[in-house]
Amino acid sequence: MAKAKVGDGPGMKHPLAGANLGTLLPALFGNGALAGGQHLRAAGILGAALGRLPFSLAERVWSMIAVEHHLDPPPVFIVGHWRSGTTHLYNIMSRGNFAYVPPLATGLPWDLLLIGGLFRRSLERALPSSRAIDNVPVNPDSPQEDEIALASMSELSFYHALYFPKRFHHHLERGLFFDGVSSDEVDEWQGRLKHFYAKLVHAQGGRQLLIKNPVYTGRVRMLAELFPGAKFINMVRNPYEVFVSMRNFYTKLLPELALQDYRHVDIDQVVLDVFPRLMERLEADVPALLPGRYVELRYEDLEAQPVEQIRRVYETLDLPGFEAARPAFEAYLASITSYEKNRFGFPPDVIELVDRHWSDHVARQGYAPPSSAAAAR
Fold first, then answer.
1. pLDDT score, position 347
2. At a CB cut-off of 8 Å and minimum separation 6, what does 318 contact?
């Protein structure tokens, strides 16, 4: 478990600075005391929300009137457990003719049309150069998952567990699995999701929306009902590699994001518990999808033959425009040839831990323990 103190991260602007007051006030005042040294940060978050308030209200009213909320064609969702290669696939496919979540929309989900449009260039200059967890570069056009944006629009988000770890498991259960969540809360979350997606599509010329979010691995059936005709791409990766990379995920993100002490969080147990629950929900939901709505990719195949695997996705899901987008896919792939992934070892205790908790899923997915220290991004 990481022993860094809260606030030891490099001081990134906190994502909650993009929240609305209806989300922010219950979050800041309903999760227990903040850690020492975090009060000024919280004051800055609150000040940002207050300063944006007139623009946020104006954008919400205008977007409800002027933005078409019916998505046609329906979205394409990239799912799969964190660290399974979903970001790599998203980065490639976003070079096609898709709308997606740009960095500004992640930070300003309520304000991406007005403030995001008026101050786009200055805001883009403030973006971090790379992601904290794996050094993947962040550019103004780098696609982002929508979960951080949704955490600024609703308390029903996995990220609230990272922001307020005093109630880590409370937010994890609600934000990942909707456990203990009322139907009215789910309806509100769905309404805000559709509101956000409609603005993304409007801002990007009406193109089909491409979304990546590991949380949705457990919500395939719900999303298929919410967006009839939606299509799903599931990324699968060796669970041993997923486990060690998830350790790094939490170890890097908690110091960056936590507004409270997080040292009580048992990272290994969290990872061990969440992975099978998400896989079981996915396995229960997929059989209900119609043919042509779902395809599964293995991370190893995507790395070995990326263009051919993207072609398979387009053909299986009947997506238009592969040949037109192929030069853009190839150019992006050529641009990342020098990228160095994080590398983690696989000592015997890690192999034994995964075998003891995930053996059924390892066997069903057809994987074996890594034979030596291998790369895991």
1. 87
2. 292
